[in-house]
Amino acid sequence: MTAMKTPVYLDYAASTPVDPAVAEVMAGCLTLDGNFANPASRSHIYGWRAESAVEDARQQLAELINADLREIVWTSGATESNNLALKGVAQFYAGRGRHIITSAIEHKSVLDSCAWLESSGFAIDYLAPQADGRIDPAAVKAALREDTILVSLMHINNELGSITDIAAIAALLQDHPAFFHVDAAQSAGKLVLDMQAVPVDLLSLSAHKMYGPKGIGALYVNRSRGVQLAAQMHGGGHERGLRSGTLATHQIAGFGQAAELARRQLADESHRIARLRDQLWQGIADLPGVACNVPLAVCGPCHLNVHFAGVDGETLLMALREIAVSTGSACASASMAPSYVLKGIGLDDQAADSSIRLSVGRFTSDDDIHRAVQHIRSVLPRLQQAAGAAGSAL
């Protein structure tokens, strides 16, 4: 019996493998001969070394987004960063206003935080996206009120890949006291993020979306704007009182190395990944009933969200044994309901159910793309034929 080949991994938007260089740095922070100590232990050399590793990583991440290292707050991931940004601003500035603007297609960590805030008496406006998945700056401007304290929007949508113009939105907010929070989990390391050029107040980041480890993220907090947050984690007053808890040196050092690698090769890597993504789409675009849900011209480099007419998405996933892809956000994969993101851009239930997200990354090769294209071209016609036959029999 011939052993089944390892599937081609095309789910980089869900999580990226840790880069070997990152893993090497992390391994050096685990054992007695490395930086294993508590970074808050300032009474001996082991603690000093661990603290130094943490601060080196803080500098590496700050350089990726052109920020001051004092503006980086470590968290457990973008979900916690989003919670801290939304709830932290809402609770600290509730006396100034209780209105927040976001969109209907944000990550669940934003939407669920907003729902929680609504139950606490805050008013939330959920902006509808354009058909291409982007949020129109004009819609943000129209929704602003005197009591608006926060605008929270994703940079690259995690399911669609569509890029919202955060620079334009940041510019229009310069004449309004509302703070601007951006979920950049999908864009960090893929697009240029310059906090000196784009006046964002809060920026959520995640290591495992950029070839770092899971369980570590960060929140950029703009010092020049004097943003204040109500802490959501209480304990030892770590991270300037914004996020208590013993710092995970190995994860933080890994995040820093991942940020350093991303900064060095961002332009070349993004171009190569976009080329592979485009090659994947060109290889299947002529198949009957296949359509791209979002124009690639408005997408980040790794995303491709495709509708396969006449085939249920879950059935297609089961049949595509040689590639690893998803029907949408990994964080919503337990739900059997059609993607709220796809429905948000106007797809009906059937079209949303017949869509899958493919995403490429650093370790995707030309051979991987060729193999994926051939596999989809082989499997899809059989599924469409079977679905048609089943429909005719009813």
- Element pattern in H and E: EHHEHEHEHEHEEEHEEHEHHEH
Poorly predicted parts? none
Average of the residue pLDDT scores: 93
- SS elements, strand count: 12
Major beta sheet, strand line-up: 2-8-7-6-5-3-4
Helix-and-strand structural type: alpha/beta
How much of the residues is beta strand, in percent?
Answer: 5-15%
Q: Measured on Cα atoms, how large is the radius of gyration?
A: 22 Å
Principal-axes geometry comes out as globular
Helix content: 25-40%
- Major sheet characteristics: 7 strands, mixed
What's the helix and strand layout?
Blueprint lengths: L7 E2 L10 H8 L17 H20 L7 E4 L2 H15 L6 E5 L4 H12 L3 E5 L9 H7 L4 E7 L11 H7 L6 E5 L18 E5 L10 E5 L27 H36 L5 E3 L10 E6 L4 H7 L3 E2 L15 H5 L4 H5 L1 E5 L6 H28 L1
Parallel strand pairs: 1-11, 3-4, 3-5, 5-6, 6-7
Antiparallel strand pairs: 2-8, 7-8, 9-10, 10-12
Helix pairs in contact: 1-7, 2-7, 3-4, 5-6, 7-11
Characterise this structure.
The protein has 394 residues and is α/β, with parallel strands linked by helices. 47% of the residues are buried. The radius of gyration is 22 Å and the shape is globular. Strand 3 (99-103), helix 4 and strand 4 (123-127) form a beta-alpha-beta unit. A seven-stranded mixed sheet has the order 2-8-7-6-5-3-4, with helices on both faces. A three-stranded antiparallel sheet has the order 9-10-12. The chain has a two-stranded parallel ribbon with strand order 1-11. Helix content is 38%, strand content 14%.
